[in-house]
Design brief:
This protein has one domain: Alpha-Beta Plaits (2-Layer Sandwich), CATH 3.30.70.100. Helix 1 packs antiparallel against helix 3. 36% of the residues lie in helices and 34% in strands. With 111 residues, it is of the alpha+beta class. Strand 2 and strand 3 form a beta hairpin.
């Protein structure tokens, strides 16, 4: 897979109240991402089983330009500004997709 750019982010919330507020902020942001970001191929938010204060985001973009456009969106800027009050830790891994199914350029299994 030659195009595409992704990341995985692990967020750890401070406490249950913070996790609930963080989830509301994520839901508001995700709604705008779906409506306004065609370069976002996958935006998946997960709760971690057995770790109620952790959330994992998996994001896949058509390319780095789509990611940069995402970061500049007003709804993302709001998310970035407001999230800190709810979090005790953030870990980010940037990804370069190599093999995929169901994504553009993902090889022969990509239908």
């Amino acid at each position: 897979m030659t195009d595409g750019f992704g990341l995985v982010v692990r967020f750890t919330c401070k406490d249950q109240t913070s996790a609930e507020a963080f989830d509301r902020l994520v839901a508001e942001t995700a709604e705008k991402i779906r409506a306004h970001e065609p370069g976002m191929l996958v935006y998946a938010v997960h709760q971690v089983e057995g770790r109620p204060l952790q959330r994992i985001f998996y994001e896949l973009y058509a390319d780095r330009t789509a990611f940069e456009s995402h970061e500049a969106q007003p709804h993302v800027q709001r998310f970035l500004a407001e999230r800190e009050q709810y979090l005790s830790a953030i870990e980010v891994d940037f990804l370069t997709p190599q093999v995929a199914k169901g994504l553009p350029g993902g090889g022969s299994d990509n239908q």
